[in-house]
Write the structure tokens for this entry.
Amino acid sequence: MASHIGCAHSQASHAGATKSGFKGSRSSLTSIGGDAFEDTVGAEGEVTNLEPTEHQIQCAVIEWRDLMVRTHPQLRWLHAIPNGMRATPEVGRWMVAEGMTRGIPDLCLPVPKKHQGFVTYCGLYIEVKTSSGKVTPEQGECHEFLRANGYRVDVCRSVDTTVSVILGYLGVQCGF
């Protein structure tokens, strides 16, 4: 069981789970992410939308963090930066006045990555996108700035990819 620590709870590891502890199926993501998918049902009853939104991916990642924080205490500091939040004009002005800035990535893990005693990254930023989502010019500019100043920045398009990036950054080895 030691090889599964940090990758998934032990029950999930026996059920063909991926590195994140999810099987990658619609039902497993829904059970972890709450509303991980909002299905659109067509005229014949078929499901026409199986792709999660950025919000749903991010919610599932945060739920995963909450499950894994006992094993990996550094995950406690993984947090969201709510730049993509829809708000009333009044709340939007309030958020801008408090410093909300366009282009900042969605998730931040402010934990330095070290290799042989040397800091290789100051922290990890993750931009969450759907499979068809595009990085905006403001996001691209911010990503370049962060990378030039010692941060790792990744664009992730699924729960599993996001979790794999985080675990890899923390140096967690997953063996299935």
In short: Residues 1-40 have pLDDT under 50 and may be disordered.
